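By convention, the token line describes the chain's fold. To illustrate:
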Amino acid sequence: MHTKVRDTYVSVAAPFAAAPVKEKITIITRDNIRTLKPHSEESIKRQQQLVPKPRRVRQPYNEQLPVNTSNKAKPKILNLAEFEKVRSISTFLSKEELEKRNTEINNAKFNAVEEARLRKEKMEEHDHKRSANAKLNELEQEAKQKANYLLAKAKMQLEEQEDDIKHLNELMLYAKCVAIRDVQVEEKKMIMQERKEEEARLDAMMEGKRVAELKKLEDREKCRIEELRKGASKIRTQIEERREAALLEQERRDQETKQILQTIANMNEQDKKDKQAKIEKSKLLMQEVAKANQESTERKRLNKVKEEEIDKKVLKYILDKESREIENDRLLAVKKAEREKELARLRAAQEKISDKQTQQDLLRAKRAFESYEREWRKKEKESIEKEIRLSKELKEERLKQQHSRENAVAFEAHKLKLEFFENIEKQKKVEEKIKEEERIKAEKNKIYAKEVKAQIAEKEANKRKEREEFFMEGIRLAKERKEKLLKIEQTKQRKIQELKSLGVPQKYCSEIEKKSHDKERLTVTMTQKKDKVNAK
């Protein structure tokens, strides 16, 4: 955004046509707002007073044109001569034609002056003769006074046309112009000083704002870094607390594991004791069974011994009886053969029945013992199978508990490991974020420093450019002044040559040339003094 209120300038060449001056001039740019005070009315009036009034240049009688002095434009009817004059003036002329025309005009002016002088002399001579011969009446006296007034006025105008008077007027005009220039230079210096003070004030204000903003940014950055540090400290505290809680939880779980292991050990010890008791009981039972078996075997042996003894006794009895019978009935063998056969048969049958009963008793005892043994073995087998099954189930349950504990410990360790790595990743991210923010801040500071340096360099370049422009302006003005002096010198030489060509005496030409050179030296001296003052 760049808005500027149009400035009002006061023209030295046209002071009476100056536009109304505003009280203030506001310049709004992208960086700041400036308010400048233009020239006051008093300074304008002072400049107007210093500017000389425009001096009318006497023209030949036949070349004077009516001048419209009113401010408003009015229609004008020109006659043929005026129209031809305006048309001839507006016609483009070459350099030779222009010089020829100027020569003709100068000749015409010189001739007109000469004619006026001759006419004046004739009129004075005539008036002198008339005044000498006759007394003038009131009308003639009034006409004479009017003629004298006109004559004095013409003399004054002719004096104004003299080179010395012109030079004096030019010196006076130059002095007034120099005074106006001094006033303008002073006002320009004052404006430049006010502008510099305003720029210094605005620069100081902008620098103060920049320093305040930098301080705010630094305070904000410090607060943010402090918050980040507090957050990081809090995160580390939480990590430590979680680590301590995890250690406490691990300790508690270790205690529970130890307690469970102790319980399992106690259970195992109790199982061992129960198993030992069962083994002892089994041993006692086996001993009892062995004792019972031994007793049964002993009883069987005794029964067998008894049966053998009975059998031996029976056999001995039978043998004795047979021997007796043989001996008794040996003689009666034939008669008693059938009876003996019958008796043998009956004895055989009786022996058979006795053996069968004994075998049945033995078989029943054997079957009872085998049934008892089978029942005991079955119970023992069932007890052993039950113990094996319980031991297997207990072992499986222990394995399950162990696997569960191992899985729980592994899961907890994995969880703690994940939490630990997550905390490490979070800490790394926080540190990376802090580093990234510090890097961004450093880059911003570098960019800002570069911008500030660029602004400083731009200001320095602008100042150097202004100084160079100022020096170049001085050089240009000096060059223009030299060119102007050269043109003035050429014009003076041309006019002197014109005067010489018109027949002006050499001494006047030399005097005019001398005065022109004196004027030139004076002008150069005053200009150099002003340039030195402006340079200072």
Q: What stands out?
A: The helical segments are 41-50, 80-90, 95-133, 138-160, 163-329, 336-502, 506-535. Strands lie at 3-4, 25-28, 33-36.
